[in-house]
Amino acid sequence: MRLFSYAAAAIVTLLSIITSPIQAALVTADDVAIDSGSQYFSALNLTNTSGLTLGSDNTLTADDFYTNSFNYVDSWVTNTVSGGDYFNVESSPILTFTFDNAVDIDQVAIWGYVGFDDTRGVGNSASQGFIEFSTDGVNFGPAIAFSIDPTQVGEGATVTDFDLQHDIVAARVTFTDNHANLDGGDRVGANLVAFNTVIVPTPSAMWLIMFGLAGLVVMRNRRKLAYARVR
Ligand SMILES: [Ca+2]
Ligand SMILES: [Ca+2]
Asked: Distance, CA 27 to ligand 2 centroid (Å)?
């Protein structure tokens, strides 16, 4: 009866490991470089959660909203162009985000650029773009398009899903449009770019756990047998 319960516990544990949801978390890059464009407000603000309200979990999630993204500590924004739409004058801003340790990514979450209690600048918020991933920091994979919406005050991130990208050390983001049809539009900006990293348990790790549990069951059973013989 005891052996059965140990075996059952081991099987339940193993099943819970196999069926447990993959671990995922929204993270920001460790650094960012400007390949094309400018920074009136620093591009590094795209890698901090400054300007966002993280909610009761106090953890970065896609539904966290920005309380203030219209200033130099919370957001990135380019220099202005004289009159009209930034994209009529300048080429698309390109930013490369880098990770100190390679990550597996299946989602990008981007918060726009607009002031709280102040819709000025909504036209300056980036609205369209694409992202490319690299495993060596030199060669990049195919472009994955995204759009940044809604543009209104106090909203969460726009999330774009894609096939899991393995061993990523760099993500290159090209912004191809802003909301210039709304007020403003002579700059391009955003508050935060975050990436959903995924950790999938490897089969080898699961085999190790399974053998370990099986060994534990055998040892417990032998001890019980030895104890029974002594008596
Ligand atoms: Ca949160
Ligand atoms: Ca920020």
From this structure: 12
Of all ligands present, the nearest one to the C-alpha of 45 is 2
Interval 200-228: pLDDT, tens: 776 666 666 667 767 766 777 777 666 66
**How many CB atoms are located within 10 Å of the residue 19 CB?**
7
Is the Cβ–Cβ distance between 109 and 64 less than 8 Å? no
What pTM value is reported for the model? 0.79
Report all structural domains of the chain as residue ranges with CATH numbers, in order of start: 1-20+202-231 (no CATH), 23-200 (2.60.120.260)
Distance from Cα 53 to the centre of ligand 1, integer Å: 8
CA-based nearest residue to 173, from 114, 105, 229: 105
CB under 5 Å of ion ligand 2: residues: 45, 48, 50-51, 74, 191-192
